[in-house]
Amino acid sequence: MHNTPGFLSKLLLFILVVTLPVAILAIWMVSHDILSLEYGLLLTLTPVGPAVLLYNRLLKEIAALTRKMGYAVVNPLDANDPSNTDRGGLLPVTDFLLTMQQYRRVLTKSLKDAEESQKDAALLFNILPNSVLVLDHRRRVVQFNNAATVFFGRTNMEGDLTTYLRNPSLIKAVDATLAGEITGRRVEFEMVGEVSRHIAANVVAFDSGKSEKLRVIITLHDLTAIRKTEQMRVDFIANASHELRTPLAILIGAIETLLGPAANDPKAHKRFLEIMQAQSTRMSQLIDDLLSLSHIEMNEHSRPSDEVNLGDVLNSVESLLAAKAVDLQKQLALEIPEHPVVVAGDKDQLSQVFTNLIDNALKYSRDNSTVTVRLKDMGKEARVLIIDQGEGIPSEHLPRLTERFYRVDSDRSREMGGTGLGLAIVKHIVSRHRGQLDVDSVVGKGSVFSVTLPLNQAKNSGSSTLSEL
Ligand code: ADP
Questions:
Q1: Who lines ligand 1 at CB under 6 A?
Q2: What topology does CATH give the domain 304-469?
Q3: Domain 224-302 has CATH 1.10.10.10
Q4: How far apart are the first and last CA of the chain?
Q5: What is the pLDDT of residues 362-411, one digit of tens each?
């Protein structure tokens, strides 16, 4: 403090201010002969010593006060100032400090509240399931949430919006919003990439009041799954109508022929009635499959709990299809372990799964070949393999095989009386049983359809063989 610039001149000024009234009094007293000149001088100099002490004391107290204020400014959240050694003095330092501490407490609380709400806002921003981008007035990304990093597959997102999204309609909407021409807009567009995605973006003007320049918030919604479901529903209705219309058209044609040109031709009667019978059976089969598919879909979430011995199910399916195998000149070989292999399931639905798969194997395999049905106990799972020696299925068709009405060879399927719904039914039943359907196929050699189901552990105490595919 003593190094303060002008310390000496300030001290002299202070002494002058303190001694001036005494000096004036002394001059007055000397001039009126009340005091001699020596005593007058002595009286004038008397306050100098206390003035220096007083000035020094005041300086120290002001220095301590300044230090404490400095500490409070640098550490606004710390109430324990290590230099807090105030012992009272001339100035009301304690009162002043108390007021300051109160002020500091209020400030600390407001700061903490502000920090908390900032944290809450950041948390909320990050847990939003949709991607959110905040753009500044120059269209640069200045903030983004966790969903956005996942969506764009990046940890950091900086720079112009067009680095990440280039759709012209979106850019136009952002520019118009930033220019204040509109308050926002919803834009839908396709994002092409490895997997194309259908996106809806909500562009909204964001005026926080803090900056004069407008900002923009973009929220992205991935509509790919919804659009796919919508498309599937439309396709399904179109396919089902088409599948029903074809036999119906043949039926109508046959009836018209019977009523018209072939009315008096007994030979033609038989032929056309046979056609009508085949087409009405096909329609009835299609309606049965559609109904069972919708029934299975409705119950897919509830897992069946009856104990079903898979060996019994396969034996009964074999007897059901034995005649068909003979008709098609195929052999059916069943390989079942001696001990019971029990799963928690729905017997009728599991019979439908194996009927559809074995029926397909019989339909699509070579003449005079053998279809093998093998049941395996895998310890924790049961596996049923349906192995045929047919023409096989090209690999590009495999991922789509279980789609409704999907066929590798439509003519062949229709000729064999297929509806194109068999594998869709299989997939839904297997999924209801928390199982898995796998297809392995080699063109020119044949296919292996395998159904894996979790075993009902308590009921398979006899099982001991652990074999792999
Ligand atoms: P479909 O009633 O036409 O048989 P599915 O849903 O049961 O309908 O089968 C769909 C398509 O998968 C069939 O049309 C056929 O092209 C093919 N497919 C199914 N099983 C086999 C198999 N074992 N071998 C060859 N192709 C098969």
A1: 356, 360-361, 364, 388, 390, 393, 401, 406-409, 413, 418-424, 447
A2: Heat Shock Protein 90 (3.30.565)
A3: no
A4: 91
A5: 999 999 999 999 999 999 999 999 999 998 999 999 999 999 999 998 88
